[in-house]
Write a structure and sequence with these properties.
Layout lengths: L2 H11 L10 H13 L18 H7 L10 H12 L8
Helix pairs in contact: 2-4
Length: 91
């Protein structure tokens, strides 16, 4: 690597911080609140079966959740959330 290429590489990465881990309450829940109310939240007709206010439900569903969630940026947030959690084990 030439000195100039090294300077450019350092300059381009300066100030970049690693992304914070995706947090369910901060990052995922607002997506679900906007897209899945009222059915999958308290009082909704699907709440007992699939409560979307619980991270373990989202982990269990995985990308099956995308049948109704079409926005690629929102999907990316949920994919990242799923990637940083171990998959649930079947009992």
């Amino acid at each position: 690597m030439t000195f100039i290429a090294w300077i450019v590489a350092v300059w381009m990465t300066a100030g970049q911080r690693p992304a914070a881990p995706v947090d369910f309450q901060r990052d995922v829940r607002p997506i679900l609140d906007a897209r899945c109310q009222p059915c999958h939240f308290t009082g909704g007709k699907m709440y007992e079966k699939l409560p979307f206010d619980r991270p373990e439900t989202i982990v269990r569903l995985g990308t099956k959740l995308f049948t109704r969630l079409k926005d690629e940026k929102q999907r990316a947030v949920i994919r990242e959330f799923l990637a940083q959690r171990p998959p649930e084990r079947a009992n």
